[in-house]
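Hi everyone, sorry if this is the wrong subforum. Our group has a chain we'd like a structural model of before ordering constructs, and none of us has done structure prediction before. Sequence below.
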Amino acid sequence: MYTKELCTSQTWLEEMVYNLLRYHGYEQPEDIDVLEICRTFNIEVWFSEGRSRSFPHPRKAGWFVIQIDSTLCEEEQREKIAHELGHLILHCGAQPGLPELMICMQESQTNHFAEHLLVPFYMFDRLFYRVNRYEAPRYIARLFRVTEKIARQRFDRFLSRAFQRGFEHYI
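Answer:
Right subforum, don't worry. Here is the predicted structure as tokens:
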């Protein structure tokens, strides 16, 4: 079936994130618990007003903190947590001393990490035949608890993957 080919991982990052999700037993969108994933990496999530960021835990050696702006909506908070988690898993050191090109590369990687974590393609089988392609971004946003912006990006990437493989007439 074409959905299996479109929903399997295609990159090392996608494979790594899907392995992480499956390690936790996440097979449905409502299963994805970013706070639980953070705990497995010795990361506490703190909510307070101000910019979202990550830093070493001030009282627990070997732990980190992801601080999230408490004024954001739930979907934006989940996206920020996933983004900061991506930095902690994928990168080491601090960005301020890095060249601009390296910072851009890290931000791109981290954004892709967050997209794969929050809206994994292997869970897209629930989409087929439920909504048309124009309703899909809003449906994805509700189902995966993300903003419509991220949902639209993921659906556009999925359509691109389908078109590259000649499956566009199925979607």
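For your construct planning: The longest helix spans residues 100-118. Helices lie at 2-7, 12-23, 34-40, 74-90, 100-118, 136-144, 148-164.
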